């Protein structure tokens, strides 16, 4: 009976692409090809043809994802591929190649370790991220090492069944295999990757990677179907009607064509089945009953089953097994792949599986469960996930429960936290239906809930982890020993997901611990104090943070915990620095690094806080160095998506301050592509929006901000630094979009802070607030009278805040900028107009020349000095200032300032060297983060005070007569003023002049 076509039809271009990518990989450029398509479209056939044509110097490592229901065995396809490598190269050589990751690698493949490796205890809970990172790094190093000898083709099929741990590994490898010769080939069934499927997000990420190509296989054309059908029928010529029927009923799917033709060669149209199920079962139903029973048994085991496993579960004799297997192979239902029997296509297996009777299904599952138990007892491979799956299929909860608990421990030992969490949830679901679950689990239900929540958090599922901890607390009596620990976990999880209430819950946890009489030093108390001190610091409550951190340091010292000694010292250092003891704080930070004694968790916290502090005091180069040092370590430890994202943000902000826009963009985009938890992403999003704004793309910045505003606002509720940093951004966006009421709403929020605002964030915020004040003073009609009064009343409060923050190293610079925005010229066109004081801007220019000043401020201050000089009729000085501003903006990449310089210079008739067209070259109009939308800001600055009054009334839509009545002048005099305004602004109509009234600040 015909099975597969002798030659692949219609996939020549796809096969050529794979070989082309392999050629590129040979040259040292790793690549990933993702092949998608509906069931039966030919994904496996394409991969087999590619594998068959691989040159002898190419190493093939292949694995296939296993369908074990909702919870797949962790790393199953990767283990299969790696075991092939071990078989070829030997265990010692493989272990030597993984280097420092040897222990993590043995945890994945315990048969490579000592005889008791299967019972090795899991890594400590606090090292969860490190365990994942070490394993991922070990596999990456292994592939890189062996690819230097021979190029590697790494194949993972049926990714739609992939487990979470393998998916995370693939994400890592796509980023980490930067200098290897590895071609990764993945396949998946498109119709199974529906909305919400984890692979869907993975595919979206992959599309943004230039080293990844997605290839969706399409259906065959009529001509290709005819060619395929004729190649399958070798002893007859099919009629045209039969060929048409095959095309119509196969719909161009190659597997269906093969099945249709395989039914007696499809010599008669009457032989064509009416339904898909009939087609898929056509070969199966022609087999003997013993062969059909064997196939039903295999279908319970999966798409493929080893001969040894099939022998263990088969009820007949070895001869009967061989006879049934041979019959199934000859009929084209099964194929032999090494020592495995595999269905020729997963669709056939699924159709046979659906044909099983309930009792038969349960009996077969029980056979597999017992066989896997025997295999696990006889060897070192971890098979608890398979045992759990099959006992559940056998409806034996009592035996499924301990297997599920063991599977959870095995997944945890392999750093597969998402799978461990799924198994923990499965065990919780079985808890109430099994006898004596505490004895079977080896722990209480509350402890299992806590551990499962921890696995969820480590897998990046913070919200689900928080929900589970809340459920545990609802069941936990207040006098239970677990109660303080669960409260601590809730407080930490609230902070992790950016929810309010963390501080209060952590305080409750400490009180609950005291209420139990547990007042001495302990690990639990140390973790509570460290977590509480950290949250207080983030909320700006520095005195409280310092007091709690120092209490935590005493406890950590008493119990000898290097980790918590370092962490609490770190927090105390940051708190002291923010309170004004900057040098002492920096010294304590370095001491925290020493106290860490190599502890990765503590060191990452050091890099986060040290890089942030150095940036805020203006040491931008040192901030970048520290952040990148920590970022490299976060990648090695598998924490790039959490701590790594914070460190990436801590590098992006000083890079922007240094004018390294592209480097900052690449680093930020890479971190955001990791889909980090919401609180960690906020800082990167803020930097990205701010960069777009100062790069001159106000529309894109505004659109992005609106799309993520809810996310940003939620984090602002619980973190002062987020409130100030994101609030400043909101002010600048509102100014850029000429929304003065909105800008003021954001600006006045700083006056509502209960604590002294964090100086490194508050000072630039106050500068932005000063720009709002200047804009409102220039255009009082743009806000209500109440708002106008509120603005003026706030100015003394802003100044008082600046005075209280004067101890901060950057205070002189930001104070100079604040005062310059509000300074008024005493005479000339700028008289009485905020921001026209030439001397104040000269002071600001001098202040922004300091090495600690962000690079964008210098050209901005020079531009504003030039505008003030224009208002003072000092055209020579204005030209020099604008030219200097342009040169600095151009070299520093501050496009928004450069564009505004060109608009101002063009309006004033001043030629700018280096722009090709002099004053005639006008940059595109648009808002900038520091002004209202305007094309001719300088021209507007040259208007007299009376002309400004007239322009405001034009903007209100008044006629010349109405303007005269309002200002107690004649209509003719008003007309003269209007003509002068139109001329100075270069406006053709009153409407255009009214629009350009936005240039007045």
**Strands, total number:** 8
Overall helicity: 55-70%
State the secondary-structure class.
mainly alpha
Largest sheet properties: 5 strands, parallel
Please outline what is shown here:
The chain is mainly alpha-helical and 1001 residues long. The chain has 49 helices and 8 strands.
Explained architecture:
- This protein has 1001 residues and is mainly alpha-helical.
- 65% of the residues lie in helices and 4% in strands.
- It is built from 49 helices and eight strands.
- The strands form two sheets. A five-stranded parallel beta sheet has the order 2-3-4-1-5, sandwiched between helices. It has a three-stranded antiparallel beta sheet with strand order 6-8-7.
- Strand 7 (334-337) and strand 8 (340-343) form a beta hairpin.
- Helix 9 crosses helix 10 (240-250).
- The protein is globular.
- The model is unreliable at 117-126, 917-927 and 929-936 (pLDDT under 50).
Set out the fold topology.
Blueprint: H1 12-26, E1 31-37, H2 43-52, E2 59-64, H3 76-89, H4 91-98, H5 102-108, H6 128-149, E3 152-157, H7 164-176, E4 182-189, H8 198-207, E5 212-216, H9 222-232, H10 240-250, H11 254-262, H12 276-285, H13 289-301, E6 304-306, H14 307-313, H15 318-331, E7 334-337, E8 340-343, H16 346-354, H17 358-378, H18 384-393, H19 397-413, H20 417-430, H21 437-441, H22 445-458, H23 462-475, H24 482-496, H25 502-515, H26 523-538, H27 542-559, H28 562-578, H29 582-596, H30 600-616, H31 620-636, H32 643-657, H33 661-672, H34 678-694, H35 698-716, H36 720-736, H37 740-747, H38 759-778, H39 785-804, H40 811-822, H41 838-848, H42 857-871, H43 875-892, H44 895-908, H45 937-941, H46 945-955, H47 960-967, H48 971-985, H49 990-995
Parallel strand pairs: 1-4, 1-5, 2-3, 3-4
Antiparallel strand pairs: 6-8, 7-8
Helix pairs in contact: 1-2, 3-4, 5-6, 6-7, 9-10, 9-11, 10-11, 11-12, 12-16, 13-15, 13-16, 17-18, 18-19, 19-20, 20-22, 22-23, 22-24, 23-24, 24-25, 24-26, 25-26, 26-27, 26-28, 27-28, 28-29, 28-30, 29-30, 30-31, 30-32, 31-32, 32-33, 32-34, 33-34, 34-35, 34-36, 35-36, 36-37, 36-38, 37-38, 38-39, ...
